[in-house]
Write a structure and sequence with these properties.
The chain is an alpha/beta fold and about 210 residues long. The protein is built from 10 helices and 5 strands, in the order H-H-H-E-H-E-H-H-E-H-E-H-H-E-H. Strands 2-3-4-1-5 form a 5-stranded parallel β-sheet. Strand 3, helix 7 and strand 4 form a beta-alpha-beta unit. Helix 1 packs antiparallel against helix 4 and helix 5 crosses helix 6.
Length: about 210
């Protein structure tokens, strides 16, 4: 019996490792490594509630908004890793990388196939929306990818821009309005404001070695 349980545990562990590898995170982080005392504006209780993964079962979205360096990507990766550990299929992209991949798929007449693959993900993480404006075609393709997940799978987006400024990135008022309408329906929005988390953490570590 113990041997059988050990084999099951090993298979489950292998599955978790495979899902994490397939997610293509830029690095691995956990919420235990995030010092919430540095960025006190972050709703710690809200983040820990998301860590339970219940939003995935409800196909709800998550948007992390705030200044650069405040821990948005760290949190997004941590929530993605936790989703993998729950057996969910996750894929991580920067916004620019996803747009470029969709444009390339369109050029190769494989856009439908790529969108279908993305739609099968339980959680699609798109980092750094707002850092670089999209071309009209890039914005349209990203809107299409997001729209096909509406009420079918969860999106987790990080952005340095408030929703009121997303028009600067997407360029089209009607498209931006339609995107925000879908995105914010059944959505958890967490703000990450304050000075750079990375800078403060670096200073603290430096002081600790003095």
């Amino acid at each position: 019996m113990n041997l059988a349980m050990a084999e099951v545990d090993q298979r489950e562990e292998n599955t978790r490792k495979r899902l994490i590898a397939q997610a293509r995170f830029p690095y691995i982080r956990t919420l235990d490594q995030f010092d919430f005392s540095i960025i006190q504006s972050v709703n710690k209780a809200g983040v820990l509630e998301l860590a339970k993964g219940e939003y995935l079962a409800k196909n709800e979205n998550v948007v992390l908004i705030g200044n650069m360096g405040t821990g948005k990507t760290h949190t997004a990766v941590s929530l993605g890793v936790l989703a993998c550990q729950l057996g969910k299929k996750v894929r991580f992209y920067t916004a620019t990388a996803l747009v470029n991949e969709l444009l390339e798929a369109q050029d190769q007449h494989a856009l439908g196939k790529r969108l279908a693959q993305l739609a099968r993900m339980d959680l699609l993480i798109v980092d750094e929306v707002g850092f670089v404006p999209f071309t009209p075609e890039g914005a349209r393709l990203l809107f299409q990818a997001f729209s096909e997940r509406y009420l079918r799978g969860s999106l987790l987006i990080t952005s340095n821009l408030e929703f009121s400024r997303w028009l600067e990135v997407f360029g089209d008022e009607r498209l931006t309005g339609a995107l925000l309408d879908r995105l914010t329906h059944h959505c958890h929005v967490l703000e990450f404001n304050g000075d750079s988390y990375r800078f403060k953490e670096s200073l603290r570590q430096r002081e600790g070695t003095m």
